[in-house]
Amino acid sequence: MPAFDDIAPLLAHLSVELPSRAFVAEPTGRRDPFAALADVARVHEATGLTPTAALDLPRDAVRDPGALRRHAADLGVSVGTVVCDSAREEHRGLAHPDPRVRRRARDHHFRCLDLLTEIGGHDLVVHLADGTHHPGQDDLRARQDRLVESLAALRERLTDDQRLVLRPWTADPALYQTDVPDWGTCFAHCAALGERAVVGLDSGQHAPGAPVESVVAQLLRLGKLGAFGLRPRPLADDDLIVGTADSSQLFRILHEIVRGGGHRPGGVALALDPCPVEPGVVGQVRSVLTVQEMTARALLVDREALDAAQRSGDVLGAHEIFMAAFHTDVRPWLADWRAHRGLPADPAAAASGHPGAGLGGTPARRGA
Amino acid sequence: MPAFDDIAPLLAHLSVELPSRAFVAEPTGRRDPFAALADVARVHEATGLTPTAALDLPRDAVRDPGALRRHAADLGVSVGTVVCDSAREEHRGLAHPDPRVRRRARDHHFRCLDLLTEIGGHDLVVHLADGTHHPGQDDLRARQDRLVESLAALRERLTDDQRLVLRPWTADPALYQTDVPDWGTCFAHCAALGERAVVGLDSGQHAPGAPVESVVAQLLRLGKLGAFGLRPRPLADDDLIVGTADSSQLFRILHEIVRGGGHRPGGVALALDPCPVEPGVVGQVRSVLTVQEMTARALLVDREALDAAQRSGDVLGAHEIFMAAFHTDVRPWLADWRAHRGLPADPAAAASGHPGAGLGGTPARRGA
Amino acid sequence: MPAFDDIAPLLAHLSVELPSRAFVAEPTGRRDPFAALADVARVHEATGLTPTAALDLPRDAVRDPGALRRHAADLGVSVGTVVCDSAREEHRGLAHPDPRVRRRARDHHFRCLDLLTEIGGHDLVVHLADGTHHPGQDDLRARQDRLVESLAALRERLTDDQRLVLRPWTADPALYQTDVPDWGTCFAHCAALGERAVVGLDSGQHAPGAPVESVVAQLLRLGKLGAFGLRPRPLADDDLIVGTADSSQLFRILHEIVRGGGHRPGGVALALDPCPVEPGVVGQVRSVLTVQEMTARALLVDREALDAAQRSGDVLGAHEIFMAAFHTDVRPWLADWRAHRGLPADPAAAASGHPGAGLGGTPARRGA
Amino acid sequence: MPAFDDIAPLLAHLSVELPSRAFVAEPTGRRDPFAALADVARVHEATGLTPTAALDLPRDAVRDPGALRRHAADLGVSVGTVVCDSAREEHRGLAHPDPRVRRRARDHHFRCLDLLTEIGGHDLVVHLADGTHHPGQDDLRARQDRLVESLAALRERLTDDQRLVLRPWTADPALYQTDVPDWGTCFAHCAALGERAVVGLDSGQHAPGAPVESVVAQLLRLGKLGAFGLRPRPLADDDLIVGTADSSQLFRILHEIVRGGGHRPGGVALALDPCPVEPGVVGQVRSVLTVQEMTARALLVDREALDAAQRSGDVLGAHEIFMAAFHTDVRPWLADWRAHRGLPADPAAAASGHPGAGLGGTPARRGA
């Protein structure tokens, strides 16, 4: 197994994008993006892991995007992504039979792209809570033709350093059928749209029994994995802290991302979803630290020994080498890592300003 | 709604391929393909719907494929498909790290293709019960590279009228991960392999909540749907009669196939799986008749009215038009259809030679 | 198969309860229960199938429940059920470790029971969107003890003609674990609570692969099925019209309810959920008519012939008899049924006051 | 967190039962139970964790059960359980409509009980691969009545120190419906059968999204959890090594068993399933060691601190305390534990006689 010092440089690449939506504390949901970016900066100061944020429209609409961009720069962070939110009906309809509805939906997506450009970000995430309610309501095939046409119009407007990230919307209680139900649909459309269109996966989207890590490996192989949304469970939607349930899956996913080179800058954009259960900085800090823990374990896999075992057909030996990294307790090492970088020992407490929020630091408790 | 006479010519295109494996009555599994083809012919005589059969290796290995081909022709049927069975370990390994294992697996697939050519069929189905048992056992990405290499070698040997049909193997109790877990993987590989490589779906392979009919529509749109295996339930594996459980899904799938032109000759090869629960001709006859019933309903959809309702945004009206076809009882009409063609009133009884097997004919019972 | 006239008296028993929540048209959600009951009455006038409504607190809180009761009586309907809604945090906590939180949650449920008594209803539905967010957050076993204690306090207050209906909440994106995840938990608690506590199922709650109809049959056998919430799909939550997707499952469920005597007055309370996708009377009318269609089919099962086939081991014969009822087109007969009772030919149009809403009546369209 | 020495006495209670079926190496499946018990003894010698075995009929039928019992005693192990295998059709039918078929199935179960008595075991596991193939084939409710009647006849014959363990069979590709699909059915029947009937869970049986650990906690609370079959994944059936995929779920399940007192002698019988993927001693040793690792972690939960955090409403604090135990690397400690007991450092190598089988011992590799 590599020594922890050997993996430190690779771990330094780790960067997790936070959504502005994560920082809406009040039930009204009316919190301005300036405050949200300040929260992202607070998490970044406390963890060293979150230099970028994702905004979404219409929630984060501002009169002066330039001012928001400068605000972010002053705080030492930036906006990497704009998500085209389609929760409101007037923003849906990229595949609608009525051309006026399609135009309205495209205009929303164009505005998102405008914001992305003005704010200096590079990824436009298209995530469509869209489809049909009833069998027969619309022609399934024609919808795909219209969808691709709309996406092509959007792709057309990208600058050379921007990407269109198409993310699946697996199932929806209000929909009989969603337009982009799986990674296969994303891949087919992104392949047709060309180089700047990439797939955005998340842990919740997969065929039953098929490990998400297989899809990650496949899309990296195809050069089409642009982003990965980290969710706590293999469900289509979830509001919890990442890694709460099956942390071994998170480990396997991050191992494939590392294996495929996706952890390097310009690779796979790792992003958190909001965590309504623990809103604000505390929930995000804890999710980010879990991602760091699992990335550290993934980097600890003894690649050389693993490769040798795999090639020689030593099935159980290879499995053992792989799992040994997962079972290693990296928390004391990460505490040192933070100390060396002048990061707070208890990032959640530091970010939130509440001493108890970070729960006292795990390594200390272990000695008790 | 179209009159039944209007849909009769389209219904005449319906053809369902039967697997030789369906006719293995004895527990030993040692029944020769000559007898299986005679059973297929018996079902075809009784239903007019099953002119072709699918063989598989190693089960259907014969010394003289030409004799088998002539035997089929004498019976008025032919072999359309050879399935590369990978139930035995020595036939697996197209993605294996050891080149000798890969070669052995390829040789098995080459033998299947040889049989396909000798028997005069056109579709080679690759259906891989293959993958890894343990996380870390093999490199997921390298496996896909090796798999594509193996498939390319196979595709290279196809003649101009042959197709390689890649079918997903979603999950497996003995496998941590399967190599071809979903339609997205099939599509990515078939797109890379070029024109003669197509996807073989079946009802059991889909993301949770995503209707299979969406995938059918998408693959037809992409020109990559080669075959559809009709299964009774949305499970990865099943041994029952088709349509036993959710016949409305079968209706929606067949509607998309009809909508996409896949029901025409050279389109989507509809195929049954064996039905171990009711082996032999009776189970196959009943499955085939259910497919015919649901195809008739799909053809009865009033396409013109549906199109108008869809375009005008009459959501519930469109749904109603669609479902009206599903709720129409086509059984009396199909009884007439059989009578006009000189087909037996009770196909299961006729095919099996047992008067009771067909259960008396539905329309007659309804009058009781 | 029985003649339609034979099943008409049984069909007359059919009664489906509508939720007041179904009739909240405005996005504010602020519509008063008086107006909702008027809508229920409108659906009942148009279909003859919905004489009762379900209210829920806090939404349907009124100053003078007596006035609401008289209002309902004037309209020819009544309130059968009050649902204890736990969407707001202050209404959750029947199992909470803090006794003050538990008391607050119990008080909410007591208020619901008070309303039930004042309004003259008989079923109190407990449906808990409750549980824990994180593994370890609370003691799973102690939660069940506290929950039963809370339910016992509620059950204690029931009058002799009231029932406590415990309904499962399978999964929740915001919860790691729900307190009443399945019918087994409901049954265990209701068995402990005694005679007046019964289980409320719905189509969305079941183990993977286990048909809901099996659970219906089991709970009827155990004398513990109190209510059945009809949902369109086998998902935990759904917003669509009933029967949209798999109508054959609905048929099988209703067959078991009929088989177990649950369709008789005082048996299983059939209830719809709101249908946000088609809010208001139109969505409810269409769902109710689908339930009537499927009940008619369930009643058409030739029970005598089925019994004989089952006993004689004629497996496929029994299946055929069962499915013949499902495949019968009962729509023309139900149109006659409505005509004979002086009910409108197009109930959705009649209930909504919009001629087009009912989509023209299926039998008429069929002739076109 | 408790010190390792504090949990050592509790860990000493851990005992995992091995199935004789796990040791069938040859494809013929004809290996005699004498050899299988020798393998169980070999695993026990190497791990100190597997003093008992489970036999099943008809596979383990022997002329002289007394001789087998003495053979086991000589080897230092014993038989705890007999599983009534229903893979062969002539052993199914406890719920069949034909009384002759029911009698034949009961006779099989009676023979299993006879073997249990003669061999000196205490648990009879009823695990029914039984149900119906087609909707309508049999009366679902009557089947349950017949099933309970059959189980009651079996329960009647139990001696005072024997238990009937009813285990669910969730889904089956060959069945439309299984007779004992979930824990709710098991519980309802065991409650009716009285004190000596208990539920046998396994990791693969649960409602979607409902954590298995909730069911474990509930059944322990109800005094009805008799056994737990440890499987590697939340699937209905699986052939892999335990803990391969989601080891955190295994940790949570074992925590509930410990919490509910089920780890003490006479509590919950922990049992492995065969692991066809790695047959023989190696697969079993590795599964057993994973169970030990996760039990050690479950025992390391700081119960006092957890209780305090839970009671004070410190949600994230409680979660942290819980997960700290899971994230602790117990492998070095367990290596010491083995050394102190004179157990081999590499149990898999010791049990199999092949030095490489145990993969070199994890702690040693970590230093590399």
From TrEMBL, chains A, B, C, D:
<keyword id="KW-0479">Metal-binding</keyword>
<dbReference type="GO" id="GO:0016853">
    <property type="term" value="F:isomerase activity"/>
</dbReference>
<keyword id="KW-0464">Manganese</keyword>
<feature type="region of interest" description="Disordered">
    <location>
        <begin position="346"/>
        <end position="368"/>
    </location>
</feature>
<dbReference type="InterPro" id="IPR049557">
    <property type="entry name" value="Transketolase_CS"/>
</dbReference>
<dbReference type="InterPro" id="IPR036237">
    <property type="entry name" value="Xyl_isomerase-like_sf"/>
</dbReference>
<keyword id="KW-0413">Isomerase</keyword>
<dbReference type="InterPro" id="IPR050337">
    <property type="entry name" value="L-rhamnose_isomerase"/>
</dbReference>
<protein>
    <submittedName>
        <fullName>Rhamnose isomerase</fullName>
    </submittedName>
</protein>
